[in-house]
Amino acid sequence: MEDIHLKASETAAYIKQKIRTIPEIAVVLGSGLGPLVDRMDHTLEICYQEIPNFPVTTVEGHAGKLIIGHLGEKQILAMQGRFHYYEGYDSEQVTFAVRVFKLLGINNLLVTNAAGGINESFKPGDLMLIKDHISFFAPSPLRGRNISEFGVRFPDMSEAYNKSLIEAARKAAERLNIDVQEGIYAFAQGPMFETPAEIRALGFLGADAVGMSTVPEVIVAQHCGMKALGISCITNMAAGVLGQPLNHEEIMVIAKAVEDKFASLVKEIVKDWTLK
Ligand code: HPA
Fold first, then answer.
1. Ligand 1 atom nearest to 239, measured from its CA
2. 126: pLDDT strictly greater than 80
3. Rounded to an integer, what distance in angstroms lies between the CA atom of residue 182 and that of residue 180?
4. What pTM value is reported for the model?
5. Distance (Å) from CA 210 to ligand 1 centroid
6. Rounded to whole angstroms, how far apart are CA atoms 174 and 151?
């Protein structure tokens, strides 16, 4: 295995010499959060292709980029274009950026995603603060030799989603009069949507929503001691819940309709984010 710590250090060094100040929070932009970057000021963009060791986006056609700048008073780094396991990247590639963020000196991570609602009280367009996750069916990104420069062999996952950040996010939503759900996010490898039987099973296990990202990134963040917050945009009810077929285009329509609300909430959360 190649030395991930060495590779991530090289990458962090490259980014560091391009930026003036170290961002305080890294934000992984999921579907429905693209326009957050329009609310940022004084931005610097770095395309993934020019970043040494960064995985290259082959599948989606358009290149991803890191956008560094101000969101309100805070200096953030937004990751536009994430790497999904279903695209064929291995867990190391899916989570590489999080390790780079840590080595840059960023200790706060906000991860967002689109997800299918399992909890029948949810509706498409809802935002859900992630309280915890279930990930029984996917390989751990920490599998293999432990990289002790990042963390311990057997990391505790009791509070992978930081409770004070969830509380602060709840208050931010209240201030903006935005209703938010809270719940458990289940990771599915994809790219196919789940079967109704799988969704029923996940519901019995305690999942409120299901999606194909976020969990590997949060596991790696927890391993290296970063504080993480996760928010899902419920773009559809999961398979079998309403008895209708799922379709990616409809999901994108809901993600787009929620964009403004989602971006406003994230901006308000970031404003009040207590840094270490
Ligand atoms: N399942 C998995 N991932 C998803 C879904 C879903 O129903 N909706 C958006 N991302």
1. 7
2. yes
3. 7
4. 0.96
5. 6
6. 36
Q: For ligand 1, atom 5, which residue shows the shortest CA distance? A: 116
Is the distance from CB of 234 to CB of 122 less than 8 angstroms? Answer: yes
Residue 141: pLDDT over 90 = yes
Of 5, 211, 20, nearest to 117 by C-alpha is 211
CA dist., res. 144 & res. 153, Å (int) = 10
Q: Is the pLDDT of residue 60 over 60?
A: no
Residue given tokens 């934000």 in the structure block: 27
Q: Tell me the helices (H) and strands (E) count for the chain, helix number first.
A: 6, 9
Identify the residues whose C-beta falls under 6 Å from ligand 1.
114-116, 188, 193-194, 210-212, 235-236, 238, 246, 251
Active site residues: 31, 62, 84, 86-87, 114, 212-213, 236, 248
Residues in CB range of 17: below 8 A, 6 or more apart: none
At 275, the pLDDT band (50, 70, 90 cuts) reads confident
